[in-house]
Amino acid sequence: DGRRHIISMWQEEDFKDPHGLKPCAFMTMWNIRHNEEDSYNYACILLRLLQYVDVDNDTKELHFQRALSILSSIDLRDDYRRRTLMTLYIAHDDANEALSVSKTFADKNNNFLLQSLCKAYCMKGDYETSEKHCRIAVEVNGNYEKAYELLSTVLYQQGRFSEVIDISDFLIKRNRNNKNAWYIKGIAYSKLGQSKEAINTWSTGLS
Questions:
Q1: How many angstroms separate the CA atoms of 28 and 42, rounded?
Q2: What value, to the nearest 5°, has the Cα angle with vertex 189 and ends 137 and 198?
Q3: Looking at residue 2, what is its pLDDT?
């Protein structure tokens, strides 16, 4: 459980340091490779490598197939483990399989599931359903910043740029250091043909 908790906290920026988590990940994989009880942790590391380490497509496919093989052979007895399988399919751009896994969740209104449904339907080009799940996520947890960012992305895909600006303003009001919100706001202004506002937005928020 300790290893699982640590691995779950690994994020993209942690892998960018050549002296950081990437060698640590491979060393951990080597140490647990023959331990059946650590199979789930092994799959989690493969998933993080698939998500965050820039490798060629063949290597990505290898990571995916190994992780899928492991997760298919163990008991996904709780929503936490099902989260890993769903995230794996999303990282592999397989929206249909991700949606299939989503049906097995016991808790239908947890933040992770709603966020993942938003991503999966967006991948399928079903922006209306994606937006619905994003808005449910915001209603369930009004402090869930990632849900607002996903909603902004879905609205952007639909060309609803004024609404993107409104959400960006909301996020910036809560956290003026949210560079992603500043960037998306500038892009939305640019799409509306308001180049001056776009430049001013980027100058203010990204300088």
A1: 8
A2: 120
A3: 45
Tokens 């001013």 correspond to 200
Both tokens assigned to 37: 């009880």
Alpha carbon distance 16, 53 (integer Å): 8
pTM above 0.90, yes or no: no
Average confidence (pLDDT) per 10 residues, the chain, 207 residues: 45 48 47 54 73 77 85 78 89 94 88 92 95 92 85 95 96 92 96 96 92
Write phi, then psi, for 200 (nearest 5 degrees): -65, -40
Can you spell out the DSSP letters for 10-71? --HHHHSSTTTHHHHHHHHHHHHTT-GGGHHHHHHHHHHHHHHS---HHHHHHHHHHHHHHH
pLDDT at 7: 44
DSSP character at residue 183: H
- C-alpha 188/C-alpha 36 separation (Å) is 50
Task: Report whether 207 contacts 183 (CB < 8 A).
Answer: no
